[in-house]
Design brief:
This protein starts with a strand and ends with a helix. 37% of the residues lie in helices and 26% in strands. The protein has a 4-stranded antiparallel sheet with strand order 2-3-1-4, with helices on both faces. The chain contains 7 helices and 8 strands. InterPro entries: DUF1697.
């Protein structure tokens, strides 16, 4: 199975620094095959004959043991991410300006009451849709200006989340 691992909160420098070259080297000690990373924001694409939960645990344990990092790891089948792109409810807007489109990947499905509450913040300019454990977020004001950050969604929905922009998400299905 081809998987994509999304690491929450790793950076090129500063807090939670994780050099991707060192991560790729460390991944060689795992049962994963053909592991590669994409850009410095914590994206791993790999093959494994394991279930998602086991893959998440292996990566989390590796990050703690090798890099002293305790960061959330969300793993999805690569084909599932491809499907997410196919059903993007904001595809027309995305085609017009993909820099305003991102996807939130949650560790679990938020409870309906919290989804209903957070949906009241959706506007024409900052609009989002939550389907199961994925959020489609078209942020017309730009991600640097919105108050609806990843941390904001996590707090409101009671989930762990990591966001990826449209271009990164698209690239992760092609690797």
């Amino acid at each position: 199975m081809r998987y994509v691992a999304l690491l929450r909160g790793v950076n090129v420098s500063g807090k939670n620094k994780l050099p991707m070259a060192l991560l790729r080297e460390a991944l060689k000690a795992t049962p994963f095959c053909d592991a590669t990373t994409y850009i410095q924001s914590g994206n791993i694409v790999f093959n494994a004959d394991l279930d998602i939960t086991t893959c998440e645990q292996i990566i989390a344990d590796l990050l703690k043991a090798e890099f002293d990092l305790n960061v959330p790891v969300i793993v999805r089948e690569q084909s599932a991410i491809k499907d997410i792109l196919k059903v993007n409810p904001f595809e027309t807007r995305t085609i017009e300006n993909s820099k305003f489109m991102s996807f939130g990947f949650f560790d679990k499905i938020p409870v309906t009451e919290k989804i209903d509450e957070v949906m009241s913040f959706s506007t024409e300019i900052e609009t989002f849709k939550i389907v199961d454990d994925v959020m489609y977020f078209y942020c017309g004001v730009g991600f640097g200006k919105t108050k609806m950050t990843n941390a904001w969604f996590e707090k409101k929905l009671g989930v762990t989340s990591t966001m990826r922009n449209y271009n990164t998400t698209t690239k992760l299905v092609s690797l």
